[in-house]
Structure prediction request, 193 residues.
Amino acid sequence: MAALTGEGSQSPEIVVGPLELAAHVDEALAVQALAFGLSDDEIDIRRYIVLRHLQSPGAHALGATTAAGRLVGFVYGMPNDRTHWWSTVVEPYLRRTGTDHWLDDSFVITELHVHPAYQSRGIGRRLITTITDGVGQPRSILSAIDIESPARALYRALGYQDLAGHVLFPSAPSPYAVMGAPLPLRRGSGQGN
Prediction:
């Protein structure tokens, strides 16, 4: 496990390590709801999706917890499979940009969320670099809301580049960008999420 300390003397130590996400799905979804603005109905749908994803070969999760055991961030992902729903949605967009080969031999970051009170302390960076350091694929892909945001800035700092933009997911109110990076992810200074 890797320990991170937050900025300032009032921030408790944050430990990043393996997370049995199925057992902590409600805690994780509470973090996601705050970080991403989900309704109760959306949380119920996400619970089903997360539990289904965790049955995929190679799926695993990490959590960021306080010294008191409070979950304040999490990431999970899995080796990409072109038959999965996400891949079937993004594939035509990637094909148009000549980047659909990124769907092969890639590790997908399915979700990465940090509680708003703990953002900008390097927790998101530690979660994503730690999970991707432990995979066998040579690259990673993810989707993020297609706006300039702290999350997109973090991904770019880690080496992710835009593969396709204005990707429309059914029922998502905003377009997304698909981003990809060779592994291992870039390291460098800066806190980020």
